[in-house]
Amino acid sequence: MKYKERLKKIYKVERGQGLVEFALTAILFFTLVFLIIDVGYTGFRIIMFDYSYQQSTWRLFPYDSDPNAVKTIDFNQYHASNMIKDHIVDYGIAINKKDLYVNTYTFRIFTEHVTHNKHPDGTPIKEKRRYLKIDAEIKYKFKPLTPFGELIFGKEVVLNKRLDRLRLLQSKSN
Predict the structure, then answer these.
(1) For residue 93, what is the enclosing H or E element?
(2) What distances in angstroms separate CA 168 from CA 7, 128, 171, one per listed residue?
(3) H or E segment to which residue 70 belongs
(4) Domain count, the chain
């Protein structure tokens, strides 16, 4: 009997101890949980933007790339920006088009005529090459999920990419 009475006495004396310990450690625990969530979320967004930027720049293919065409096509800034945004959104998960800002400087398709002396008999080879020149700045902005993320990353995270590519679309020799 004495054993049960002692346990009841100890239980009554230490009744609020667990609550006090939880209150002291809960702040640290929830801070760590929210920081892990925000760092993971931000890392995911950064990796997804890098991946979609990389995939979209390799697969960006305008509709007019005929190697027989001689004309130079300069796309207007609005059309070129939307084309780049659409490709980035297509290849990225959880990337919103409204969070992307594209400032296009150059987006043109042009043809270059090259003559080579490569035949053994000395006759020249004429070659037409169709190129795509892209020069743009891409910004991607997003907000952290929690207030702890705002303490670390600020009100919003801004990622910048410079797109400067000269791609050979097609080549045709006579």
Answers:
(1) none
(2) 83, 11, 8
(3) none
(4) 1
How many angstroms separate the CA atoms of 114 and 95, rounded? Answer: 41
Question: What is the tens place of the pLDDT at every residue in 34-93?
Answer: 999 999 999 999 999 999 988 887 777 665 555 455 566 667 778 788 888 888 888 888
Model confidence, pTM: 0.72
91-121: b (≥16 Cβ within 10 Å) or e: bbeebeeebbebebeebebbbeeeeeeeeee
Greatest alpha-carbon pair distance for the chain in Å reads 116
What are the DSSP calls for 28-68, one per residue?
Answer: HHHHHHHHHHHHHHHHHHHHHHHHHHHHHHHH---S---TT
Angstrom distance (rounded) from CA 39 to CA 44: 8
Helix, strand counts (H, E) of the chain: 4, 4
